[in-house]
Amino acid sequence: MAEELSGTLERTSFTHLGVTHTGKVRDSYVSGGVRTIVSSDRQSAFDRVLGTIPFKGQALNAIANFWFDATADIVPNHLLEVPDPNVIRARECELVTLEFVVRAYITGVTKTSLWFNYESGEREVAGNRLPEGLRKNQRLQQPILTPTTKLEEHDRNISRADAIGEGLITASLFDRVADLSFALFARGTEVASERGLILVDTKYEFGVLGGDVFLIDEVHTPDSSRYWYADTYESLFEDGKDQRALDKEPLREWFVERGFRGDGTPPALPDDVRVATAARYIALAEEITQRPFEATPDTAVDRVNSLLAG
Ligand SMILES: Nc1ncnc2c1ncn2[C@@H]1O[C@H](COP(=O)(O)OP(=O)(O)O)[C@@H](O)[C@H]1O
Ligand SMILES: [Mg+2]
What we know:
The protein is 32% helix and 26% strand. It has helices spanning 2-6, 56-70, 114-119, 160-165, 171-194, 233-238, 249-257, 271-289, 300-308, and strands spanning 19-22, 26-31, 34-39, 42-45, 48-52, 79-84, 87-91, 94-95, 98-105, 124-125, 128-129, 139-145, 148-149, 197-209, 212-216, 225-229.
């Protein structure tokens, strides 16, 4: 762990691999219909990059790839191969420029999250009417879809009607991927529950290729989802306490406690917080994949460079 703290994969530049897109967390290189995606160890929260977490890219990639496999009967996905624990090769798709967020509980401290909006008086979120009297972390009657915009500087909740009205998507495509989102969420909920976990909420991205819809990006990872331990859910909820989370919510809370919600200069991440966050990512990877997490002899940065450098 000590070695990885200074051997994290922070940024890559393999321009010979194609057209480069540097996301908050992943670096993509697109050439000939293939997207090489490097999961870095960058940590994002509140739409900002806030430091690096050891082993994070590897854990993220393992979790996403498990779920691509576990949902392939519902919808085809972009995954082609996994040449390194931090890297995949994927089918390049035409982006559906909305993110499909499914939520089964009301929670969250970010500006697009349900609880944050509800607490500040909002009762209508992305076209969903929320009842009075909900408490933080309460389970909703049934999962709801709260799409957000993509390709804008900050995510914005948007209803089906507005997304269609603004020309972001057609009605038929919206309804198709909405159905897929609920089906994927049901599968995620079922598999997570076999592992003693609650899939609280998540975000899907879809692409279109040759007229078919593909699941792209990442699936049910701690960057795109919240997970809680099931066994302590009820008692913590009754006591009005925070849930035991296997995701990045504890890290978000750490920033919020220091007055940071995405604007201004973030406080620097101390190593103990980085290590605690790494431990959560690794625990979730082991829990979800049901395989021991294997650190390689080389650090992520050395491995990825020797695989991909030109
Ligand atoms: N198969 C794919 N085809 C096209 N774009 C994709 C595909 N898979 C992922 N992407 C895009 O690649 C980027 C992944 O990097 P990420 O760090 O998540 O970026 P962001 O900061 O935009 O969230 C996202 O913008 C995502 O929409
Ligand atoms: Mg992303």
